[in-house]
Design brief:
This protein has 260 residues and is α/β, with parallel strands linked by helices. 32% of the residues lie in helices and 18% in strands. The chain has a single domain, classed as 3-Layer(aba) Sandwich (Rossmann fold), CATH 3.40.50.1820. Strands 1-2-4-3-5-6-7-8 form an eight-stranded mixed beta sheet, with helices on both faces. Helix 3 links the parallel strand 5 and strand 6.
């Protein structure tokens, strides 16, 4: 695994990303709470693929959030990122806000996406289903709502073993602030209108304990993406990659290895 930076165009801020593994290229677009380093789920996925895991602009060490005004800007950012890396077509696994952007990328630039895996996707709102607002939580326990078991936040986000827990707490706040620029107050992004344009074989994955994107949203996504399939991961909340990393990697990896 390498932690790298790349500049997309002269004068632009660098993109910070992880790269590891070998095989067909996979672009991993992270959830609203950011990357927790080279996560176990990514590490397992990298046993079969070459994985590129960038920080979204404004998350972690990456800058450039002030230059983005919409989800479309994020999509174009990742088109530029693929161009800068010389990657023509990739598998894409998107998680949470990353799933929304992955879906938009597949709808707007179907030529760049081979197969698509969307985990706990944010972007559709239904008043009959609703969902917890991740930006309306107690600031001292901001991301507990993202876990099926809130106690897991302590070890999986605040105490990752690499930096002081207080630094992780501050970073947690910064990452949620970045996410709020695109998802607050109600995360209805209009993506449902563009989902039928997706041509990439797609799997949608919900989590049984997800309070932000309840599993009842998954059939809505499935109904609007032609030919898509769906699964539910048990004993996991919105951050299924942290609570069930092996299951996350197995579902995505098996999907990407399936022939078109």
């Amino acid at each position: 695994m390498e932690q790298l930076t790349i500049t997309l165009r002269p004068g632009s801020v660098p993109v910070h990303f992880f790269r590891g593994g070998a095989g067909e290229p996979v672009l991993y677009l992270h959830h609203l709470a950011g990357l927790q380093g080279w996560e176990p789920a990514i590490d397992e996925l990298a046993t079969r693929f070459e994985v590129f895991a960038p920080y979204h602009p404004g998350w972690g060490p990456s800058q450039g959030l002030e230059d983005l005004d919409s989800g479309l800007d994020l999509v174009l950012h990742y088109v530029d990122f693929l161009d800068a890396l010389g990657l023509d077509r990739v598998h894409v696994v998107g998680h949470s806000i990353g799933a929304w952007i992955a879906a938009e990328l597949a709808a707007i630039r179907p030529d760049r996406v081979n197969r698509l895996a969307l985990f706990t996707p944010i972007g559709i709102w239904d008043d009959a289903i609703r969902g917890e607002d991740p930006f309306a939580q107690n600031p001292l326990r901001a991301t507990e709502v993202l876990f099926a078991d809130p106690a897991r936040r302590e070890n999986l986000i605040l105490r990752d073993g690499t930096v002081d827990p207080l630094e992780n707490y501050v970073q947690e706040m910064k990452d949620l602030k970045a996410a709020a620029k695109f998802l607050w107050p109600i995360p209805d992004t209009g993506v449902i209108k563009r989902l039928p344009r997706i041509k990439a074989p797609t799997i949608l994955v919900g989590a049984s304990g997800d309070r932000v994107v309840p599993p009842a949203y998954i059939p809505i996504w499935k109904a609007n993406i032609p030919g898509s399939e769906a699964k539910t991961v048990l004993d996991a909340g919105h951050l299924v990659n942290l609570e069930q990393p092996s299951r996350f990697a197995t579902i995505a990896g098996s999907w990407f290895l399936r022939p078109n």
